[in-house]
Every structure is written in C-alpha cells, then in structure tokens.
Amino acid sequence: MGKINNVTVFILRGLSQNPKVEEVCFVLFSFFYMTILLGNLLIMLTVYMGNLLKSPMYFFLNCLSFVDICYSSVTAPNMIVDLLAKKKTISYVGCVLQLFGVHFFGCTEIFLLVVMAYDRYVAICKPLHYMTIMDQDRCNKIMLGTWIGGLIHSIIQLSLVLQLPFCGPNVIDHYFCDVHPMLKLACADTHIAAVVDTANSGTIALGSFIILLISYTVILVSLRKQSAEGRRKALSTCGSHITVVIIFFGPCIFTYMRPNTTFPGDKFVAVFYTIIASMLNPLIYTLRNAEVKYAMKKLWCRKVFWEASWCHA
I need a surface site. Which of 26, 185, 212, 268 has the fewest CB within 10 A? Predict the structure, then answer.
C-alpha cells in the first residue's frame, strides 16, 4: 500500500496557549535571539580581525559561533513569530525542512564540540607538536568531516519522517518540527522508526558526551604536570568547554534517548539545546577566556574609539 498524505499543513502548539505568557515569551525570546546573533557575530568578527587569535582553537570557536547562529535561526524566528500569531501553522514541506535543519546543525555542533575537546587534548598533552598535528589543512578537513557527519545524520532523520503517511490529526505539541512529535501523528506503526531515531540521535548524543567526559578527564589528569600558570590557563579554557557541553548535551540526551516516548515538558527542555546554549556560548567563551577578552578590547578600541584617550591608557 502506498503512502497517503492528507496533511499539507501542521499546527504547532508552541510553548504556551496563554496569551499573557506568550507576550512575555515574545519579549524574552526576541532578546535571546538578538543576543545569539550579536554575541556570536562579535566572536566571529573578533577571531577574524584579531591577530592574536590565529590558533586552531579559535578557528573552531569561529566555526562554533557560525553553527550556533544557523542552528538557532532554524527554530527561533518561527517560534517568536508564532508567539503573537493566533494560528501557528507550518506547511508539510516547511516542517520537514525545519526538522532537517535542526538535526543538521545540531549534529554538526555535537561533532564540533568533540573536535574542540580533541584540540584541547593535543594543545595541553602534546604542546610541542600542537601546530604540526593541528595544522590549517587538517583543521579544514576535520571541519568538513563535521559537516558531512551532520548531513548524513540529518538525512537519516528526514528519511524516517518522509516514508510515513499523515492522515490527521495535524497538531504538533512542540514549537518546532522534530521526529518524536511527528511520529505520534503518523497513521502507521512507528515503532521501528522510533527505535532507529533513538539509535541514531541518542547514540550520537550519549556517545559524544561519554567521549567528551573521557577527553576532559584525561586533560585534567595531565594538568598535574603543568606549571601553575599553565594549569590556570588550561582550566579556564577547558572550564568553558565543559560548561557548554553540560548545557547542550544534558537536554539532548534526555530528549533523544527515549524511543517513542514524549513528555509535555520536552519542548521546554528543547529550549536549552536550541536557544539557551547558543546564547550562552559567546558569554561563556569570552568571560572565561582572557585572550578573547583582550582581543575584543583591542578590536573595540581600534575600530570604534580610535581617538578615545582611555583606549591608550
């Protein structure tokens, strides 16, 4: 029997159905999204213009900021508009494209965080060979690999949904289109699709998290051989990475390690890995990194307040 699709439009329930709460959320998430754009663009500009930030670590940080902007832009603008809309609708095509974008950029970010942990491992545990191991050509190939990995993952997720028939209802209890909420609406047995989704998304999230924990444990143990100044600098850098990992991976694992099971609170948990993490990344990496703060100050002084006396103090 061929696939039958009677549904051409989905209705997103959003974060809340209370108009007062939606107005507050509109202001809050508009601020969050503007912070994501401005914060990550500032980091990208600082890395691009700053002569002191030419190491592989800042190359990957620059890429992370770009991915964060793309990742949050897949869901946040549509969610913000829907908060004031009377009817929150999205076309079938728009829904599957949003699902593709969420998993493409989300998985790319996961692989990128693993790469950043490896970069810190090489820098701290093999400092004399760091620039040889992490040369620009290898960094470019690694970055290409993260994009390809994200693409393969998102194609698998997309194929799970495209093969399913949707004949109604068409109300998705979420603020964006994702695999689990859409599987609940399919008029077919979705058990296998749910297991494949968990085996794919869940394994990537949990497996990467375990790899990251092992990597940072090895790094922290190796710091005993470093000087006091070296330990302080390494702890500051690794501390920011670990903070990002916890904020991003905790909600991801909670969401995608449960086959064919959804909770009403899933959409609030999803806010952390789709919006909050992308907003906090620039703050975490700048406030905990003296080199980035110094480069930002130099850039700000040179480009905006060139003639101001306090810049030369």
Answer: 268
